[in-house]
Amino acid sequence: MDVYLSPRFRADFENHPLALVDVGASGGLQHHWKRATRHLRVIGFEPDEREFENLRRTSGSSQILYLNTALYDREGEIEFRLMRHQQVSSVFESNKHILIRYPDNEWYDEQRRVKVRVNTLDAELEANAISDVDFVKLDVQGSELAILRGSHRLLRHHIFGLELEVEFLEVYKGQPLFADVDSYVKPFGFELFDLNGSY
């Protein structure tokens, strides 16, 4: 099924695909983005070496570029916690006091910690000569606000949409919550369009 309402736009998207920055690209494109694959140019960021190699090996498209880079609000080095379930790894410590109430909480069991080099999204896009970004998706287990703080040039001048995973409870200790993220992006002209609940 084509995600666009009218086929008259098909040629426009083929000539000028939407540029999607997918931060936290583990597992590849999410289902709702996969439906638009032929209309997209994807720049994916995945810091976990285990998943990056898998993404690179299976991408199968010249329109998808994966970078094995961790993003944050500055350049430097941070500690990254590798959890039992790879997709919930985070810079934050899991909050067992909250998680114990829910199924599959063992996914968040910390296996080990590694030091990773980080950079800002603004700097990484510049280093890779990427200037035309339309949409950003962030699913980074509590680091969404930090990455947005390292993306002020992108937020101010380029993109028209954000898809952010945010929490209303501290799944990770000390993580920013929905209100923190919402307050940060509002001055850039963004407003809440939709919520897709996950329980």
Structural write-up:
With 199 residues, the protein is α/β, with parallel strands linked by helices. The chain has a single domain, classed as Rossmann fold. Helix content is 26%, strand content 22%. The protein has helices at 10-15, 31-34, 49-58, 96-99, 121-127, 144-149, 152-157, 178-185; strands at 18-23, 40-45, 64-67, 70-71, 76-83, 110-119, 135-138, 161-164. The strands form two sheets. The protein has a five-stranded parallel beta sheet, covered by helices on one side. The two termini are 28 Å apart. The mean pLDDT is 91.
Give the beta-strand count: 8
Return the domain count.
1
Strand content: 15-25%
Poorly predicted parts: none
**Shape call:** globular
> What letter string, H or E per element, gives the SSE order?
HEHEHEEEHEHEHHEH
Helical percentage:
25-40%
- CATH class (first level) name: Alpha Beta
Separation of the first and last Cα atoms: 28 Å
A few lines on this structure:
With 199 residues, this protein is of the alpha/beta class. 26% of the residues lie in helices and 22% in strands.
SSE topology:
Layout: H1 10-15, E1 18-23, H2 31-34, E2 40-45, H3 49-58, E3 64-67, E4 70-71, E5 76-83, H4 96-99, E6 110-119, H5 121-127, E7 135-138, H6 144-149, H7 152-157, E8 161-164, H8 178-185
Parallel strand pairs: 1-2, 1-7, 2-3, 4-6, 7-8
Antiparallel strand pairs: 5-6
